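Subject: for your reference before the review

Hello V.,

The reviewers asked for a structural picture of the protein, and I figured it would be easier to keep everything in one thread rather than splitting it across files. Below is the amino acid sequence we used in the manuscript, unchanged from the supplementary table.
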Amino acid sequence: MKHIMNKAPMGWNSYDYYDTTVNEAQVKANADFMAAHMKDAGWEYIVVDIEWYSRDAGTMRDKYQYIPYGDIEMDAYGRLQPDPVRFPSSVGGKGFGPLADYIHALGLKFGIHIMRGIPREAAHKHLPILGVDAHANDIADPSSICRWNPDMYGVRRGVPGAQEYYDSILAMYADWGVDYIKCDDICNTNMYPHDPYSAAHEVEMLHHAIEKTGRDIVLSLSPGPALIEKAWHYEKYANMWRITDDFWDQWDLLENMFHRCELWQNHVAEGSYPDCDMLPVGKLGKGFGKERDTQFSTDEQMTMMTLWCIFGSPLMVGAELTKLDDRTLSLLTKTEVLKLVSNDYVGKQVERDDSQAIWSCLNRKTGERYLAYFNLTSSEREISCDIRSVEQFRDILWGADGKKNMAAREIWSGKAEAINEFELKGVVSAHGVKLYAV
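And here is what came back from the structure prediction:
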């Protein structure tokens, strides 16, 4: 059985700020900040993203994001290890164990990024697979590669040693204390447009290997866009799957996410979360060459947070947490918005066109109801809705005269709004949102 959670995962991921270069001290600093300022609002995962095993990551960033055939840290069984310079506590075969212990001591959970498959260097050296009479070259599939990262070969389907290889790396991760794995080049293997889910068998191998550890480990699949016709497979074998390629702080990408959320809204379930990708707020981009502030306006950030939460997406902050300003921290710790990612809340799109989108949300246990008005235009506009037309409001017992006294409170501002003759009206800023508790 896969890991079942009571809400979509919420955490921090190193990629948007550090790219491939994050080190142990930086991970600890962000974990310390989360524990002190964000944990009480539900944030709990600290995730080390891509190339933690690379000794030369970032040294040729003007030419390569991922250095071809770069210098990697690997054990005798072809299992990647943390770079001992960037992660000094890993020295002596300890791996990420000491860092995971540090994060667990803060009351948080620890995650890592991996690429699907087996290191090319392991295959070229014919390294043995732990616990079985097979070698890396026996299971590596040189015709299955990643378009954008040259580190790995895919793993063949059904050959001796293939499952055992995945078992060996997951057993190691479990020993380290890993709680979350983000596996890349697997949700959509976009090198192969004729077969964009060509690594489905590796998803299954990862799932089975996690089961064998006996540890609750979240399995997150990247990159997107996930294939809607494969929704059943993602739901069966993974906890999260990206419904978009890398999401950045551009309005056109955020606007497009309304289409993606409409497509995937009926596939959000307990332990299964279509993933809108990271939240590019605050300070970003240092590892890409230059630190910068998010390009999203405050209204756009509120729109993003509201959509991710009412849809039920996982939440992963991409910023350098230690540099968050008070306004951004307040946005990220608005608990009445964040609670919508709980499994108890079900979000549904009410309507959408080129100008606006309306979503509703219902807590099936408490009866709490919400309406979100999103303005997709570049000018302020009024949005309205007849409460009676909203599917999630239809079980309300209206009064004997056909009317019911109702009121609404806008969550971000705290302002009360009247509902007249069943109609809730709101003036919404350009690219902005109003989220009402009704």
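For the response letter, the relevant points are probably these. The first helix runs from residue 15 to 18. The chain has a mean pLDDT of 96.

Happy to draft the paragraph if you're swamped.

O.
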